[in-house]
Amino acid sequence: MKILITGGAGFVGSHLADKLIGQGHEITVIDDLSTGRYQNVEHLEGHENFRLIIDTVLNDKLMEELIRETDRVFHMASAVGVRLIMERPVKTIETIFRGTDVVLGFCSRYRKRVLVPSTSEVYGKGASVPFREEDDLLTGSTDKHRWAYACAKTLDEFLALAHWKETRLPVVVVRLFNTVGPRQTGQYGMVVPNFVKSAIKGEPLTVHGDGNQSRCFGHVLDIIEGLTAVIENPDCFGQVINLGNAEEVSIRSLAEKAIAMTGSDSEIRYIPYEEAYGEGFEDMQRRVPSLDKAKRLVGYQPTRTLEDIINDVADQFHREIKAEAAMA
Ligand SMILES: NC(=O)c1ccc[n+]([C@@H]2O[C@H](COP(=O)([O-])OP(=O)(O)OC[C@H]3O[C@@H](n4cnc5c(N)ncnc54)[C@H](O)[C@@H]3O)[C@@H](O)[C@H]2O)c1
Fold first, then answer.
1. CA of 6 to the centre of ligand 1 (A)
2. Pocket test for ligand 1, best of 29, 78, 242 (most atoms within 8 A of CB)
3. How many CB atoms lie within 10 A of CB 143?
């Protein structure tokens, strides 16, 4: 099959490209390399079934061409990461909403299967865990930019479901909970790579707030199993489906685990949210997915643990540090 992955030089998209190439599919990646990295797909360049196009999903003409000739679209391109969202709110909204509008519009015109990733952020300040797909969504006021990401993704969801409702576009929406693993950079405030990298370097690990807030982390390889399963199952069309891992850990214990597992003697520093993100930042205490729907529809069952994640991320950084040392 011909498969288009927008944002395919990013963290999740590049793992998806690896898996699909391995299955013999022809992969086209379009990525503007804003948060993605060429190195994530460098190993695929030269493969007869791989093509990389460095451009934006906002380029209508190109997107029409690419979508017309493909069989499936994984629309992974997005502005991503809390820090980026706080610093570039206009770009965040434009990239997310306009990008998805372009993709869905052409998928609808040419009747192509498409997967649109949303995020656990849409559950906002919802307090009844685990979060289920049919729950009410509760975000903050519009002067708090952190919610722009959640709201833009919510609008993406509405648009995807509207296409399904009006013309039965074969579209599936997945709400990804924190997804981590090799290739994710800490550059945009991603907590796991930041902690592991700091621990390996013997630098302090910075925890925002008191560290009692908890999260669930899914290994990227489990997540892409879910992504490839849902797009192939027509029962998933017109559905919103959580994907992640329900194992919960506080940010404080995550920091402790990263230190212990890397044999580090780093200390943990606690800083107020305002210091990290500016005045008016809001965070959630807990964010746990209900995975019942994914399990029921496609038998989704994550198999990798938090320890696997920390080990895999630490391996990546050890390799990078070694490579940097060899270059010096
Ligand atoms: N990683 C997570 O924990 C997580 C959680 C929830 C949702 N998601 C969603 O999953 C998807 C992939 O996220 P990721 O973690 O791989 O992030 P990422 O930043 O690594 O990937 C996004 C990719 O999109 C590219 N991109 C951004 N704007 C573009 C544009 N206009 N045109 C073309 N390419 C563009 C970036 O360069 C990057 O390669 C996103 O939709 C994100 O919102 C991820």
1. 9
2. 78
3. 7
Cα angle 86-131-280, degrees, rounded to a multiple of 5: 25
CA–CA distance from 95 to each of 6, 41, 144, 156, 213 (Å)?
A: 12, 22, 19, 11, 29
Q: What is the pLDDT of residues 277-325, one digit of tens each?
A: 666 666 778 999 999 999 999 999 999 999 999 999 999 988 888 888 8
pLDDT reading at 64 higher than 90: yes
Rounded distance between C-alpha atoms, residue 51 and residue 221, angstroms: 22
Q: How far is CA 121 from the centre of its chain?
A: 11
Q: Which residues pair with 94 in a beta bridge?
A: none
Q: Quick check: is 69 in a domain?
A: yes
- Supply the residue whose CA is at minimum distance from atom 26 of ligand 1: 77
Cα–Cα distance, 154 to 164 (Å, whole number): 15
**Interhelix angle 306-327/191-201, nearest 10 degrees:** 50
Rounded to whole angstroms, the Cα distance separating 13 from 5 reads: 7
CATH number at residue 62: 3.40.50.720
Structural domain span for residue 13: 2-183+217-246+287-304
User: b vs e for 274-300, b when ≥16 Cβ sit within 10 Å of the residue's Cβ?
Assistant: eebbeeebeebebbbbbbebbeebbeb
Question: How many distinct structural domains can be found in the chain?
Answer: 1
Q: What angle do CA 85, 89, 93 make, to 5 degrees?
A: 95
Whether 288 and 129 have beta carbons less than 8 Å apart is answered as yes
